[in-house]
Design brief:
- Helix content is 35%, strand content 16%.
- The chain has 785 residues and is α/β, with parallel strands linked by helices.
- Among the domains are: 1-16 and 282-295 and 652-784, ANL, N-terminal domain (Rossmann fold, 3-Layer(aba) Sandwich), CATH 3.40.50; 306-520 and 530-547, Rossmann fold (3-Layer(aba) Sandwich), CATH 3.40.50.12780; 561-631, no CATH class.
- The strands form eight sheets. A nine-stranded mixed beta sheet has the order 7-6-17-16-18-19-20-21-24, with helices on both faces. Strands 5-25-26-28-29 form a five-stranded antiparallel beta sheet.
- A hairpin with a 5-residue loop joins strand 6 and strand 7 (334-339).
- The longest helix has 19 residues, at 3-21.
- Residues 118-130, 143-153 have a biased composition (Polar residues).
- This is Disco interacting A.
- Residues 1-118 form the DMAP1-binding domain.
Amino acid sequence: MPNSLRQTLQENVILFSIVVLGDITQKGYEKKRAKLLARYIPLIQGIDPSLQAENRIPGPSQTTAAAPKQQKSRPTTSRDERFRSDVHTEAVQAALAKYKERKMPMPSKRRSVLVHSSVETYTPPDTSSASEDEGSLRRPGRLTSTPLQSHSSVEPWLDRVIQGSSTSSSASSTSSHPGGRPTAAPSAAATPGAAAATALAGLEAHTHIGHPDASCGLGCDVTWPQCSSVLPVTGVPVNSRVSSKIQQLLNTLKRPKRPPLKEFFVDDFEELLEVQQPDPNQPKPEGSETSVLRGEPLTAGVPRPPSLLATLQRWGTAQPKSPCLTALDTTGKATYTLTYGKLWSRSLKLAYTLLNKLTSKNEPLLKPGDRVALVFPNSDPVMFMVAFYGCLLAELVPVPIEVPLTRKDAGSQQVGFLLGSCGVSLALTTDACQKGLPKAQTGEVATFKGWPPLSWLVIDGKHLARPPKDWHPLAQDTRTGTAYIEYKTSKEGSTVGVTVSHASLLAQCRALTQACGYSEAETLTNVLDFKRDAGLWHGVLTSVMNRMHVVSIPYALMKANPLSWIQKVCFYKARAALVKSRDMHWSLLAQRGQRDVSLSSLRMLIVADGANPWSISSCDAFLNVFQSRGLRPEVICPCASSPEALTVAIRRPPDLGGPPPRKAVLSMNGLSYGVIRVDTEEKLSVLTVQDVGQVMPGANVCVVKLEGTPYLCKTDEVGEICVNSSATGTAYYGLLGITKNVFEAVPVTAGGAPVFDRPFTRTGLLGFIGPVSMSSCTRTGSQRR
């Protein structure tokens, strides 16, 4: 090969590298390329060789004069008909034929492995049948100088060759030029200019521009730097930023949109299939199978009224001035004392108003058996008590709930779902409470989120009608329907309603009277919520049966003065007090400086949350401090209860036949496997629990396994406590499915035989039966499940 041609090609390669590196503009690149190719392109068209020097060494004036011509170049979308001749076609075909006969040696090192096509697979276009579409594929930035215009018919073919190779090495080019056809038979004629053009095409086809490590087709090794992709021959560099984005887009499109379906479940499925092997060293229960514990029978022969309402009527007419309930304000002063006479008369007024004065479309708004919501704050026990007994006298079902604070309160929404499922359409409240509720623009009580539409009735004295003298409710009849519905919030946050029948209500009052030894005219100090649980059972129901005087301590007063309940016990000489372990703990923190208090009048200090393991520490600390102030150890009486089974067990003082209190130090490791193992207090991994007393009178209790069929547990095994009694809840209102599972459980022995002829109620409490050596056989220890 002539040295001049080799030198020119090397300069062209250097020029390509300069373009890649970005040190020359596009216009400058086009000028330089025109100069390098001008000496060979005229040979193809038969132009006078004397013009080569002119094109090779242009003067300053020529450059200046050529500028306007370049600005007036023809559009790139049209082809110059002057170069569409048979001579040109024959020259190109001859050049290809000669190239086939004398193939150029392939590069021997650093060749790109991504290039799979060569110049042999491409054929120059037939200029006689060229269309305007071919020219339209060129970029607008094409060179417009006269020498390159003479080469316009060859240039698209070179574009196809280079684009075909660049598709393998650059993701920016997605397809080759659409005008290629299979190689045609070469013509016999050939010219030196055609051979030169062929050599140039071979150079550009085998010089892999844009690849970091490529070789020149003439044997000159060229190492390209890492750089942006370049469209060969046309000389238009692609912005590296755009190129990287396109590359990223292509990589994204190549990826599958989502893995195969089986890959979604491989790992999780293997984890699910992996069965956790039990620890061979874990403790296992070794005791014998437990049996059903039977509580003492209810005392017979004692004259009792047929119903709780009959008892209220008796005390309201025979002992009208006996104090029934005393309410305190936030300063500890008694604001009002409700007598049994006032309770009976106000309840009658409310019952008459509910049945006769509330109408809807000329029909009574309520009928016997309808549910009514009771919305009263914790600071107003008097009006709540009147509303509760007024509903019972009107044969309506009260549903006590908390006062909604905001329109979108999360807890209130669950209560609203309960009210909707119960079909509640009326809510009872006081004038003060109604004024504090959120209001709509009309001035009425706003509709709370999740609540059904409600009518609100204020039950203060002036809003109630006096009943005629000949109107009397059916207080003496023993009713069989639902007495009230107590709401319960589960661990998941849902709210359900536990229905309590009139028979269960009466049986609960009698059982508590016998277990606690309540008598007439006793004073009870109540710190608990009087609308539900033990605060309702002791402070509103059982107290009326025994004509007791209840002093209700509001929660706001306890926050301001934690010693207030102790002071009221001392002031009223209360015989019983109903508290939680938190109240005892707060009293310890505030008792310093209080020397004039005495708890010697107490015979029972009922700890309502005695089933919780942490209550024992509060009980022990409280006894250590107040034992010097008249508190006896046997007075502290923890109890266990649940909304479903009501009172499950309660410890009794010795004067009522109860054994002394006992404790148990249990291994935490054993408890984690549901096994009872006695340990010593010196270790840290132990749990000290206290007994919660004896089974309630008239009840039967057993402990069953937590999962699956309710088999009886062994004596050293923890299980769920179940109760069979006439003093338990009857169902979850409107939820038949879970009602059967909870209120109709059938415990069985290891052989599968039922342990009793009547179903049991699951309490949701974990517990076990204490051994005879530790306590009596009727003792249970429990905690909230």
